Amino acid sequence: MATISATMVKDLRDKTGAGMMDCKAALAETGGDMEAAVDWLRAKGLAKAAKKAGRVAAEGLIGLATDAHEAALVEVNSETDFVARNATFQDMASAIAKTAIGAKGNLDKLMNAKFPGDKATVADTITEMIGTIGENMALRRTAFLSVKNGTVASYMHNTMAPGLGKIGVIVALESKGDANKLAAFGKQLAMHIAAANPQAVDVESLDKSTIARERAVLTEQAKESGKPAPVIEKMVEGRLRKFYEDVVLLAQAFVHDPETKVANAVADAEKAAGAPIKITGFHRFALGEGIERAGDEAA
């Protein structure tokens, strides 16, 4: 009997898109003959996924799962919104989101994790679903947040089923304050993040290259005024403050009260909760963002 190596199984999986266990079985049945194994999988209908792999999957669902002081987000893509409304696909996305709690933001770990109630991995389950439904699918990304004290609040926009929708947000608030007050404010903050799409919690955590690029653009714009260098410098700093108000969470106008900055809303929430509140991080997943679709100019 031919020895079936892990490399052979991986190569067959790369060729066909079939699950690892199916590839191993195919190689065992064909004595390690790669081409015969491909035909064996095709005959069993298990190689269908490979034919779908080149098609753009920009629809699907954002999945959300929470557990005590932690929460996770996933983006599970399909080709069409019709499949996203399929109960079987929704059940899979929901189960993947729950599994993502244990993966703690590591996509490879999540892909290789056991799918709930099954011996197969998450990756193999997706591959099998591709063959069953007939559309390309992908687990694109995952994110995770946790706190020692406080809450990880969440919000799902355009909800299609519990924990599933089009825009998902998780935000971590470290605090020893009143749990109910903290949860209520956290929900408001998550809704704000969904609407305002900040890039960072504060200026210090904003990507330095982003600031440098914006400063360079603003400097070139200011130079066109023909004013002296010291005046140009003040103009640039003023415009940078406006930029921060657009992209930095604490500097943004709070969507629930546009006359109030988020930083001030946090201060008010601290008084209500009876303890300091620190926003330690957030993640916002919008379905399909950054994916080039057919018909896009970028494509």
List keywords for this structure.
299 residues, alpha+beta, Helicase, Ruva Protein, domain 3, Tetrahydropterin Synthase, Chain A, GTP Cyclohydrolase I, Chain A, domain 1, 3 domains, 3-stranded antiparallel beta sheet
Care to describe what's here?
The structure is a single chain. The chain is α+β, with helices and mostly antiparallel strands. The chain has 3 domains: 6-52, Helicase, Ruva Protein, domain 3; 59-200 and 254-286, Tetrahydropterin Synthase, Chain A (2-Layer Sandwich); 207-247, GTP Cyclohydrolase I, Chain A, domain 1 (Orthogonal Bundle), CATH 1.10.286. Helix content is 47%, strand content 21%. It is built from 12 helices and 9 strands. It is elongated. The relative contact order is 0.12. The mean pLDDT is 89.
Instruction: Give the fraction of residues assigned to helices.
Output: 40-55%
Order of helices and strands: HHHHEEHHHHEEEEHHHEEHE
Order of strands, widest sheet: 3-2-1-5
CATH class of the largest domain: Alpha Beta
Total count of strands: 9
Task: Return the structural class.
Answer: alpha+beta
- Main beta sheet: strand number and arrangement? 4 strands, antiparallel
Distance between the termini: 49 Å
Summarize this entry quickly.
The protein is an alpha+beta fold and 299 residues long. It is 47% helix and 21% strand.
Topology, pairings included?
Blueprint: H1 6-16, H2 20-29, H3 34-44, H4 48-52, E1 59-67, E2 70-78, H5 81-84, H6 87-103, H7 107-111, H8 122-133, E3 137-146, E4 150-157, E5 164-165, E6 167-174, H9 179-196, H10 208-223, H11 229-247, E7 253-254, E8 257-261, H12 262-273, E9 278-286
Antiparallel strand pairs: 1-2, 1-5, 2-3, 4-6, 6-9, 7-8
